[in-house]
Design a protein that fits this description.
mainly alpha; two-stranded antiparallel ribbon
């Protein structure tokens, strides 16, 4: 291979991106079929379901979504009455987002489906491969953690 040519198929960042996108698209079929959610809407629903109350900025950081995607997802979940916004008492520019009972019910319905999807995905691998993946991902996350802050 020539040094000035980058073979994308063996370039780790490209491979990780493609893999993450493929897995995300496969799982998106589950929540799209069940609730008609987009990926940003699912990430918003699951972030709030896991953490309770969050700001839009916190959601964006937690889910690695751009603020416009967070804003659209929040607006749609609010339109469905799955989410409420409460202004911060000390800073009116900040809103605290939380799931309503209906939003929480949708989230709780999705949790076992998400876990089953993950189990099915990991079930394609041997125990050694699952261990190697977990260790490798954790090592990359740790080495890049300071850049994410």
């Amino acid at each position: 291979m020539e040094p000035d040519i980058l073979e994308l198929e063996s370039f780790l960042p490209y491979r990780l991106y493609r893999l993450a996108d493929t897995v995300s698209r496969e799982f998106s079929r589950v929540y799209k079929e069940r609730h008609g959610l987009t990926r940003p809407e699912w990430r918003t629903l699951s972030g709030l379901g896991q953490r309770g109350t969050m700001t839009a900025t916190e959601l964006g950081e937690q889910s690695a979504m751009h603020k416009t995607k967070v804003s659209r997802a929040v607006a749609e979940l609010e339109r469905r009455r799955w989410l409420t916004r409460t202004p911060d008492e000390s800073d009116r520019r900040v809103e605290h987002l939380a799931l309503t009972k209906a939003g929480l019910a949708a989230y709780r319905e999705m949790v076992p489906l998400a876990k089953a999807f993950e189990q099915a995905l990991l079930g394609r691998l041997s125990a050694e491969e699952r261990t190697a993946i977990a260790k490798g991902v954790a090592a990359l996350e740790t080495s890049l953690a300071s850049e994410w802050k």
